[in-house]
Amino acid sequence: MELADLYDVFLTCDGVSTDTRAIGQNSIFFALKGANFNGNAFAREALEKGARLAVVDEEEYSGPNCILVDNALETLQNLARFHRNQLHIPIIGLTGSNGKTTTKELMQAVLATRYRTLATKGNLNNHIGVPLTILSINDQHELAIIEMGANHQREIAFLSSICQPDMGYITNFGLAHLEGFGGKEGVIKGKSELYDFVRAHQRKVLVNYDDAKQMEKTEGLERVTFGTHPQAGLVFKPKDESEAYLSLECEGVSFTTHLTGKYNFSNVAAAITLGKYYQVPLEEASRAIAAYQPTNHRSQIKETERNILVMDAYNANPSSMEAALENFGTLNARHKWAILGDMFELGDSAEEQHLHIATLATSLNLEKVLLVGTNFCRLPASKNYEQFEDLNALTEFLTVEDPRQKHILIKGSRGMKLERLEPLL
User: Residue 224 forms beta bridges with which residues?
Assistant: First the structure.
C-alpha cells in the first residue's frame, strides 16, 4: 500500500495506536519493536480489541486487515510527516536541555485561552512520541505545541523534519546527555539543529534575549525576543526573589505563579511572549499563568504535616541541579536540607560534575546535604555531606532521623525515583 493510500485510510479512522493495552476503537495499530518486545506478535490482539488495521513488518504476522511494510516505525514516522504537510495551523516546536516540559505546559495554558490547542502529552517527545502527537492533530485544533527531546546528534533534525515548526524555541543549552552528545559543544550543536531547520525553511524563532549563546545562534533569523534586557521585544522584571514562588512583571502587568525557582523565569516569560505574539493579551496570560499548577514532581512546593518539600525530582543534570541549589540557597527559611540523587548520562565528566554539585551544595550553609547514588558515593567522604549507596539506605536514615519543620530540596535523575521519599517526609 502506498503512503498516500494509507493516509486516506487514516483519515477515516479514529487515530493510531502502538499499545494493545490502550488500543483505540477504529484505530490503526502500528507494530513497533523494542529491546524486549515485538509489536508484530500483538497485531492480532489489536484487531480483536477493535483496531481497524494493523501495520506489521514481519510476514509471519500478516493476515486479514494487516498491512505488511518494510519497517513499521518508519511507516509511522512517514505517515506523521505526510499528515503534517496537510495541516494549516501554526506549530511551535521546542527543545532544550532543561525546562522543556514545564515551558510546553505554560505555553499551552496561555494559548488555550484563545485557541483550541494541542500539546505533547507528558514526555512523548522522541522518535515515537513526536509522530504520535502529530497524528493526533485533527481539524478541531487551531494550534499545536510539539516538544522534542534528544540525546544524540541528528535527532532534533529528524524530529524537526516531522513536525516542521512554524516557530522554534530552545529553552537553553545545558549540561544534559553529555555522553550521547559528546560534551557541551555537542549539546549546542545537537539542539541547534532546530535553528538549522528554521533557517532552511524561513520560519521564526522565539529567543531569550538574555541568553548570549541563543542570540548568537539565531543571528539572521526572524526573531521574537523576550528578556530583562531593555532591547528585548518584551521586557520582564523579576519580583520578590526571596519568596518561595516565582513572580514577575511585564508592561505593568503582574504575573504570579505556583512555580518555585528563578530558573523558571525564562520558562514563564517565553510562554507569555509566545501568547502575545499570537494575540493573547497580557491580562489573559496572567490569569492563565496564575492558574497553572506544576505536576509530576517538577518545581513543586509541597507542604506536608511535617515539612515543606521543594520537589524537583522528575529529572536532573548538572545545569538544572546547579540552578535548583542556587535558588534553594536564596530561599527565606531557617532549617534547610538538600537530598540530591545521581545524575545520569554524563560519560567521562560524571565524577567532575558530581563533585561540583556536592561542593556547591555544601557552600550554601544548609543544615544537611544528603547525597544518594553510586556516583555521589564515589566522591571522597566529607563531614559536610552524608552519602548513601541507594534509596533503601537513605530511607533507613530518614526513618530514624525523622526530620520535622524543615525545608527540603529533593532533586535527582529520573532513574533515582526520589519522589518515593515523599511519604517519609
Answer: 206
Question: pLDDT for 103-139, tens place per residue?
Answer: 999 999 999 999 999 999 987 999 999 999 999 999 9
**H-state helical runs in 2-128:** 3-12, 43-48, 72-86, 100-111
Burial of 126: CB neighbours in 10 Å, binned 0-12, 13-18, 19+: middle
**Inter-residue contact 403 to 336 (CB < 8 Å):** no
d(C-alpha 325, C-alpha 280), whole Å = 34
What SS3 state is found at 305?
Answer: coil
Question: Which regions of the chain carry the CATH code 3.90.190.20?
Answer: 300-424
Q: Is the pLDDT confidence value at 290 over 90?
A: yes
Which three cell numbers, joined as nine digits, stand for 305?
Answer: 504535616
| Fold held by 300-424 | Protein-Tyrosine Phosphatase; Chain A (3.90.190)
Q: With beta carbons less than 8 A apart as the criterion, state whether 169 and 94 touch.
A: yes
| 123, three cell numbers | 514526555
* Closest listed residue to residue 254, CA positions, set 273, 278, 236, 266: 236
147: its cell numbers: 516538544
Secondary structure (3-state) at 118: strand
Question: In angstroms, how far is CA 182 from the centroid of its own chain?
Answer: 21
Q: Are 186 and 154 in contact (CB under 8 A)?
A: no
Q: How far apart are CA 354 and CA 203, in angstroms?
A: 39
Alpha carbon distance, N-terminus to C-terminus of the chain: 57
Is 3.90.550.10 the CATH number for 87-291? Answer: no
**Distance (Å, rounded) from C-alpha 364 to C-alpha 358?**
10
